[in-house]
Amino acid sequence: MPAKIFEIRWHGRAGQGAKSASQMLAEAALDMGKYVQAFPEYGAERTGAPMKAFNRISNEPILLHCSVEKPSLVVVIDDTLLGNPDILAGTTPETILIVNTVKPIEWVRQKTGFQGKICVVKATDIALEELGRGTPNTVVLGAIARVTGIVELKYVEDKIRDMFLKKFGEEIVQKNIRALHRGYEEVTCSA
């Protein structure tokens, strides 16, 4: 029987932190004792260009080495990308869709036609409030932890500390941890 692998496909724009978030998520899951993969896919490498990142998380070794084609979770960091048909490629009614948007769930459903579970979080707004800049990645990680249970917040907090403490200091670490927790608390999902 093949290993059950939780696969995530991230859609964002270069510079929004999707690659960093996928890496933090993978490292947090690795610290939990899971097998992981995290890798990006770029088109034109310039700030603002659409890009994808991918994660695989499993309790058993992962032998796949390709893009995620049948995602368990699709994360959209920029809601202006929702008209792109690639967003829903390979999804099923069991796939979860998390979107960074200030718009309601029904707007996302109408925009995409997606029939599975849709979750929304105002990640950019939260990031602006907590960090003073619109980088939504740590907020989205909190939403992923809440919606999927694939990673525990404590492990993500540890990764934030590892990545930011020496470079930016304790104040920035604490701001990112607050943003993470707000993403966890403020994500809302369809039934």
Question: pLDDT below 50 for ≥5 consecutive residues: which ranges?
Answer: none
CATH domain class? Alpha Beta
Radius of gyration: 15 Å
Task: Estimate the mean pLDDT confidence.
Answer: 93
Shape type:
globular
List how many beta strands DSSP finds.
Answer: 7
Number of helices: 6
CATH superfamily: Pyruvate-ferredoxin oxidoreductase, PFOR, domain III
| Order of H and E elements | EHEEEEHEHHHHE
Number of domains: 1
Largest sheet: 7 strands, mixed
CATH fold title? Pyruvate-ferredoxin Oxidoreductase, domain 3
CATH-defined architecture: 3-Layer(aba) Sandwich
Distance between the termini: 31 Å
Strands in their spatial order, largest beta sheet: 2-3-1-4-5-6-7
Keywords: Oxidoreductase, Pyruvate
InterPro entries: Oxidoreductase_gamma_subunit, PorC_KorC, Pyrv/ketoisovalerate_OxRed_cat, Pyrv_flavodox_OxRed_cen
Protein name: 2-oxoacid:acceptor oxidoreductase, gamma subunit, pyruvate/2-ketoisovalerate family
Organism: Fervidobacterium pennivorans (strain DSM 9078 / Ven5)
Q: Which key terms come to mind for this protein?
A:
191 residues, alpha/beta, Pyruvate-ferredoxin Oxidoreductase, domain 3, seven-stranded mixed beta sheet, 6 helices, 7 strands, 40% helix, globular, Pyrv_flavodox_OxRed_cen
Task: Characterize the structure shown.
InterPro entries: Oxidoreductase_gamma_subunit, PorC_KorC, Pyrv/ketoisovalerate_OxRed_cat, Pyrv_flavodox_OxRed_cen. Keywords: Oxidoreductase, Pyruvate. It comes from Fervidobacterium pennivorans (strain DSM 9078 / Ven5). This is 2-oxoacid:acceptor oxidoreductase, gamma subunit, pyruvate/2-ketoisovalerate family. One of its GO terms (molecular function) is oxidoreductase activity, acting on the aldehyde or oxo group of donors, iron-sulfur protein as acceptor. A 7-stranded mixed β-sheet has the order 2-3-1-4-5-6-7, with helices on both faces. The chain has one domain (about 5-190): Pyruvate-ferredoxin Oxidoreductase, domain 3. It is globular. The chain has 6 helices and 7 strands; from the N terminus they run βαββββαβααααβ. It has about 190 residues and is α/β, with parallel strands linked by helices. It has helices at about 20-30, 105-110, 125-130, 135-150, 155-170, 170-185; strands spanning about 5-15, 35-40, 50-60, 75, 95-100, 115-120, 190. The mean pLDDT is about 95. The chain starts with a strand and ends with a strand. A hairpin with a 7-residue loop joins strand 2 and strand 3 (about 50-60). The longest helix has 17 residues, at about 170-185.
